[in-house]
Amino acid sequence: MQKSRAIVLHRYAYSDSSWIVKALTEECGIVSFIVKGGKRKESPFKGALDPLALSEVVFRQNPNTELQFVKEATLIDWHRNMREDLLTTAKAQVMAEIVLRYAPAGVPLEGEFALLESSFRDAEASPGNKEFFARWLLDTCELWGYHLDISTCSHCGHTIEGSAADFHPETGAFVCKSCLGVETPRAKKETLDGFYALRTGNGDIAHPEFTENALLAYLRNHIGFLREIHSLKFLSETRKLFSGEN
Ligand SMILES: [Zn+2]
């Protein structure tokens, strides 16, 4: 028997009464579970296998089958505060989908687990947390080997004072004011200020969606989003809904 903490990334109906649940486990990477009778009201797993929940699961890992049977699932954190904020939930869903589709299969993913767990914990502790998604994207780039050096100009190699003057999502290059010269930057001021907020860690990120999109574009350039991230559509709809508030 395996016992591991797990974050539920995705769940879909398998039959009238069963679910298939894909979870990021702390010790065994991404595991697909079949949960027979999971849709019934009296299911012993209750909220423990809901998408975005953090739980402890006990299962027998059968290497001969894709789908594992869950023996026990105990809810640790349902992330109630995080779910109460629609925009935060939409971002958390994109994070879960990126891990599900792009993390390497069949290997332990301790780094990915630790990162997702702490990001969800931050969002849970301060709902409406503006930084957590951009911070997670930046840390995920680092984890997957696409390091971004926010504080160094890629042209002259000098440390950039304050916000960079430009950013190129194709290469991940930041450019300082003197190297940009009289040219018009391609990146928006909000994007660059957001990167500076991530660099200083002061949480002062007024319009995170600009920096989030720049990081998504950078990541897309490197890992190639061959398959569409479906939840991005929902996020962009949700952002429109909330754009009046920003
Ligand atoms: Zn420079």
Would you mind describing this structure in some detail?
By secondary structure, this protein is an alpha+beta fold. It has 2 domains: 2-78, Nucleic acid-binding proteins (OB fold (Dihydrolipoamide Acetyltransferase, E2P), Beta Barrel); 81-245, Recombination protein O, C-terminal domain (de novo design (two linked rop proteins)), CATH 1.20.1440.120. It is 38% helix and 20% strand. The protein has helices spanning 80-84, 86-102, 110-125, 132-143, 177-180, 189-200, 208-223, 231-242, and strands at 2-13, 19-25, 29-35, 54-59, 67-77, 166-168, 173-175. The strands form 2 sheets. The chain has a 5-stranded mixed barrel. Helix 2 (86-102) runs antiparallel to helix 3 and helix 2 (86-102) packs antiparallel against helix 8 (231-242). It is elongated, with a radius of gyration of 20 Å. The protein starts with a strand and ends with a helix. The model has no long low-confidence stretch (mean pLDDT 92).
Largest sheet: 5 strands, mixed, barrel
| Percentage of residues assigned to helices | 25-40%
Could you name the CATH homologous superfamily of the largest domain? Recombination protein O, C-terminal domain
What shape does the CA trace take? elongated
At the first level of CATH, the class of the largest domain is Mainly Alpha
Percent of sequence in beta strands: 15-25%
**What string gives the helices and strands in order?**
EEEEEHHHHEEHHHH
Number of helices: 8
Radius of gyration, in angstroms, nearest whole number = 20 Å
